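Work Package 4 report. The design task specified in the project plan requires that, given a folded chain encoded as structure tokens, an amino acid be chosen for each position. We show below one input record used in the internal validation round.
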């Protein structure tokens, strides 16, 4: 038999590899679906690429690559028989097979037991070889199989302190020696004993000292730098007068039980609709997203995006085409991973109601087990967070920042094809006026979200807020318990009014005066998007530079009419500011006729810390227009193989007479270097012709933000035919501006339509269909959930749990999503 197996595997031996350092082995999840070893068909791991595939996708990989040998992994999970000893270690039949397989966290090890099996499968005949089979298999195959079975998680290799690791128990928990120094901690009025800081405080469980982060983490005596668990925390706190057991008795479901006749319900309870018997819903569009540990911000944003038809059509409607044309490593392809997640959310395959027999059994046992498991965004998170210092961490993040980050990735990956983020894009008209000469300048810019201020001074309960602040200050000064907090109630109209009011322009340079002067700016909508995203600016920075959330409720309307905020352009009687730029200040030493480039040195250093040459990092930052380390990182990856990759940045002479000055708005000569392809792609993805985008970048020293302004202020008059040809080549069937031209108050002129960004302009009347809420004191902590209106009813998406909403807390939202009402 050994000879037979050896001979059988001889033709495939060149394709079987042993995982090396740096190879990622995907043995927990399919690259195209959420199938795993626990799925009915198990998981197939390619013995050459080490990618995992479900039963319905492994044939595609075999046909595309010709790879024939796969390892089939299957986990059999079953509930323990009645009478089994509680707390026993789950039994494994093949303990070594899945040595480092990530367990499904929905299963409680005390309630379930499982058996693992593995075998080699040879395609296309599906010949199976059970494992382990050390004596009968060639040595190379045995070593390769053992290495695959014992490989660690591919995500742990990328993130050593990843979000899927469990917090460990402190080594000092049992042996902690507490001083009997008579220290008792009061219920309020805490402050740092050295600097009197009242925020970001830490309690030393040895002596009861309270310090802020600055003094607590001074580099001395720290033996555990990560978060740890203290199973004896209640005992350790009671030593200093903090009785957790008594506190638990005084609370019920998060509500304080005291003599206050009107206890304030916490935002956690209101937003999550705690205390209500919410009905779980199942099926297509009602699939939850697992929280991988502080990833609720991502789950909430993705749920909303995939409730929009344009994203559904782009990624789920084109599923088979995306999968068939995916690269050899689909785990690194954005379109593939978006299609995978979209199908998981919308197919209903991972959101099936429990069987009637299961429900009856639960009723008989007087217990209820959560049936909703949701899908895991692990592969997509790893991809979109790569190279990002915050999203790649295990910390909580801002959902609004992630939304913008995802839109940027969608833009970059759309190219000239269908771009679902077009539905969010709109034009903002900024009107800047010189206060001294009263002359004005109108410019337009692209945006995807409107950020509304929340003016506390406009609160309808202002007197109540002032009284609370006085009581709170008095309680802190006298070390007494704080009064019940009061939440500010702000009208939505006040937020809109604050948005439309003029704001001062810092360091305004008046081209009329040829000097700095006072200037004010107002903003209006030059176009209205198909889907309007509204962010309430609830977060601010405290004195310790930690973002904090303002406690407020805003009466956000279900229907919104912004027609009065449409831009009007230059009005009769207004005089424009001259089209001049501030003078360029050259370096003192211009003997070599060179100009010092503007480079974000902080971003360059951040990339250099990753191990890239510093000069290469400076070039990457410069050629991506100082748009941040993420874009610079992509430039580095694309140019690593170039021979001058690590050479210092060199620019053409600024005063080179061979450079043309005809395109310069003020006669200054731009640098005649070819714009980076990444910047050109970003502009073309917004709908601008390629030639016009290159010209704009050349005239603005490859600065993306300035290039956008240049495009809006320099329509292609002389090359209109070329621009139209470009539009026809890159954007077939595009009628994005047809609606814009139908509005008499639109500022887009006919010759600018051909070169403007793709916007889906229309009426400014909207209906609320989704909102994302945040619970917690700052963006660095807390929890995100979202509510989405589907089929005429509000649905709450709280990680993997999906239920019908009984009382959607629309007044406590953070990001609101509106869709345009039809004109009929």
């Amino acid at each position: 038999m050994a000879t037979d197996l050896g001979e059988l595997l001889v033709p495939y031996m060149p394709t079987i590899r042993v995982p090396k350092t740096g190879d990622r082995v995907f043995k927990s999840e399919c690259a195209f679906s959420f199938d795993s070893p626990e799925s009915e068909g198990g998981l197939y791991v390619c013995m050459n690429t080490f990618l995992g595939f479900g039963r319905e996708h492994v044939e595609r990989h075999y046909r595309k690559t010709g790879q024939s040998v796969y390892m089939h992994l299957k986990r059999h999970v079953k509930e323990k028989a009645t009478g089994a000893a509680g707390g026993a270690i789950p039994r494994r039949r093949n303990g070594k097979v899945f040595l480092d397989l990530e367990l499904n966290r929905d299963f409680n090890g005390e309630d379930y037991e499982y058996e693992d099996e593995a075998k080699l499968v040879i395609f296309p005949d599906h010949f199976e070889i059970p494992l382990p089979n050390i004596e009968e298999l060639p040595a190379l195959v045995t070593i390769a199989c053992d290495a695959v079975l014992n490989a660690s998680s591919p995500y742990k290799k990328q993130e050593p302190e990843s979000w899927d690791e469990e917090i460990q128990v402190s080594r000092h928990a049992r042996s902690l020696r507490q001083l009997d120094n008579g220290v008792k901690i009061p219920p309020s009025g805490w402050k740092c004993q050295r600097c009197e800081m009242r925020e970001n405080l830490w309690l030393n469980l040895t002596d009861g000292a309270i310090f802020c982060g600055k003094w607590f983490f001074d580099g001395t005596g720290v033996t555990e730098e990560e978060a740890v668990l203290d199973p004896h925390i209640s005992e350790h706190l009671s030593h200093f007068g903090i009785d957790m057991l008594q506190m638990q008795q005084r609370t019920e479901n998060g509500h304080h039980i005291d003599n206050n006749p009107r206890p304030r319900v916490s935002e956690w309870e209101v937003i999550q609709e705690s205390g209500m018997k919410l009905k779980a819903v199942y099926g297509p569009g009602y699939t939850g997203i697992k929280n991988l540990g502080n990833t609720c911000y991502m789950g909430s944003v993705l749920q909303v995006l995939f409730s929009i038809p344009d994203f559904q059509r782009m990624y789920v409607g084109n599923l088979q085409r995306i999968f068939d044309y995916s690269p050899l490593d689909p785990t690194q392809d954005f379109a593939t991973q978006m299609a995978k997640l979209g199908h998981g959310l919308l197919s209903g395959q991972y959101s099936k109601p429990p069987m009637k027999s299961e429900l009856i059994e639960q009723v008989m046992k007087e217990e209820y087990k959560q049936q909703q498991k949701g899908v895991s965004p692990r592969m997509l998170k790893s991809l979109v967070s790569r190279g990002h210092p915050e999203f790649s961490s295990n910390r909580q993040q801002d959902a609004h920042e992630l939304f913008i980050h995802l839109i940027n990735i969608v833009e970059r990956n759309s190219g000239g094809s269908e771009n679902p983020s077009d539905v969010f894009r709109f034009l903002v008209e900024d009107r800047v006026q010189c206060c001294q000469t009263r002359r004005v300048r109108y410019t337009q810019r692209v945006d995807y979200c409107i950020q509304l201020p929340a003016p506390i001074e406009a609160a309808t309960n202002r007197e109540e807020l002032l009284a609370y602040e006085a009581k709170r200050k008095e309680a802190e000064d006298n070390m007494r318990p704080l009064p019940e907090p009061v939440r500010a109630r702000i009208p939505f109209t006040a937020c809109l009014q604050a948005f439309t009011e003029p704001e001062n322009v810092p360091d305004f340079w008046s081209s009329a005066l040829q000097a700095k002067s006072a200037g004010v700016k107002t903003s209006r909508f030059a176009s209205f998007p198909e889907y309007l995203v509204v962010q309430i600016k609830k977060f601010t920075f405290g004195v310790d530079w930690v973002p904090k959330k303002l406690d407020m409720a805003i009466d956000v309307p279900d229907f919104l009419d912004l027609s009065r905020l449409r831009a009007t352009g230059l009005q009769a009687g207004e005089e424009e500011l001259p089209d001049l730029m501030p003078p360029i200040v050259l370096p003192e030493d211009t003997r070599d006729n060179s100009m010092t480039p503007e480079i974000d040195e902080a971003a360059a250093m951040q990339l250099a810390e990753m191990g890239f040459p510093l000069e290469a990092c400076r070039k990457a930052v410069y050629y991506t227009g100082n748009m941040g380390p993420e874009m610079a990182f992509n430039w580095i990856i694309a140019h690593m193989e170039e021979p001058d990759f690590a050479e210092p940045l060199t620019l053409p002479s600024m005063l080179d007479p061979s450079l043309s000055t005809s395109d310069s708005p003020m006669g200054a000569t731009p640098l005649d270097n070819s714009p980076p392809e990444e910047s050109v792609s970003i502009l073309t993805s917004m709908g601008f012709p390629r030639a016009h985008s290159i010209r704009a970048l050349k005239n603005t020293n490859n600065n993306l933000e300035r290039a956008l302004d240049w495009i809006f202020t320099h329509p292609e008059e002389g090359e209109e035919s070329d621009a139209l040809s470009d539009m026809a080549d890159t954007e077939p069937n595009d009628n994005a501006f047809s609606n814009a031209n139908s509005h008499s108050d639109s500022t887009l002129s006919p010759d600018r339509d051909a070169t403007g960004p793709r916007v889906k302009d229309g009426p400014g009347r909207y209906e609320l269909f989704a909102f994302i809420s945040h619970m917690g004191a700052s963006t660095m902590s807390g929890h995100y959930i979202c509510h989405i209106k589907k089929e005429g009813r509000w649905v709450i998406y709280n990680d993997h749990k999906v239920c019908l909403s009984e009382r959607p807390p629309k007044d406590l939202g953070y990001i609101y999503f509106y869709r345009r009402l039809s004109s009929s």
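The CA atoms of residues 487 and 552 lie 5 Å apart. Validation will be extended to a larger panel in the next phase.
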